[in-house]
Amino acid sequence: MANDHKFWDRMAKRYAKSPVSNEAAYQEKLRKTRAVLTPEMKVMEFGCGTGSTAITLAPDVQDYLATDISSGMLAIARGKAEGVGNLRFEQKRLEEITPPEGGFDAVLAHSILHLLPDKQAAIAQAYALLKPGGVFISSTTCMAKGGVLKPLLWAGNKIGLLPMVKFFNADTLVGAVKAAGFTIEDRWQPSPKAAVFLIARKPAMVNNVS
Fold first, then answer.
1. Domain containing 166: what range?
2. Does residue 208 lie in a domain region?
3. Which residues pair with 43 in a beta bridge?
């Protein structure tokens, strides 16, 4: 994970030119996301890549912070985002992000949780960054078994040619989100092999048990 930014720096230009694999599904995810966003919200997205989702959604909220570990990805994102005044891009890892006073209203994580060494820690960090009642919105590739790809990806990651990829199924992902304290409000998967889209909410109030 420490050197994954180098892989994404190399891939940035190619990634920016590649089309969305399922445009209809992507637009549906945007629609579902917009349904829970409001103009006064402060939003943070981690693993923003070249910023397409951030640029699309930023006009719907008050403030949008988009972060990524790759300077190459962010350079492209900033070039695309010219004129979007409430959108900021920062090169930071999730654990380096400082929330505004009271926390973020929404945290977004698209196509990133399966690329992290510890998804549970990342989900817990997203929970900590949110204000009570805030929403965590994610889209995650879930592969229960890597098959022949698993050793190839492992070896490629070790020599810096490929990113880290974690293998887990949709139910494991949902379990991790619930274990962090979230309530799942929407679970959508357009096809059995497609990414799993989740909208999860942090409780508005935490009951203290003495």
1. 4-201
2. no
3. 64, 106
Mean pLDDT of 5-34: 91
Position 136 in a domain: yes
Looking up tokens 């997205």 gives: 45
Rg value, the chain, Cα: 17
CA atoms within 13 A on the CB side of 157: 16
Provide mean pLDDT across the span 114-133. 96
Q: What span, in angstroms and rounded, lies between the C-alpha atoms of 47 and 45?
A: 7
**173, 116 contact by CB (below 8 A):** no
Look at the chain and report how many structural domains it folds into.
1
**Tokens found for residue 98:** 């400082």
Asked whether residue 207 is domain-assigned, the answer is: no
Specify the pLDDT at position 209.
42
Q: What is the pTM of this model?
A: 0.88
Report DSSP letters for the chain, one per residue.
-TTHHHHHHHHHHHHHHSPPS-HHHHHHHHHHHHTT--TT-EEEEES-TTSHHHHHHGGGSSEEEEEES-HHHHHHHHHHTTT-TTEEEEE--GGG--PPTT-EEEEEEES-GGGSS-HHHHHHHHHHHEEEEEEEEEEE---S--TTHHHHHHHHHHTTSS-------HHHHHHHHHHTT-EEEEEE-SSTTSPEEEEEE--SS-----
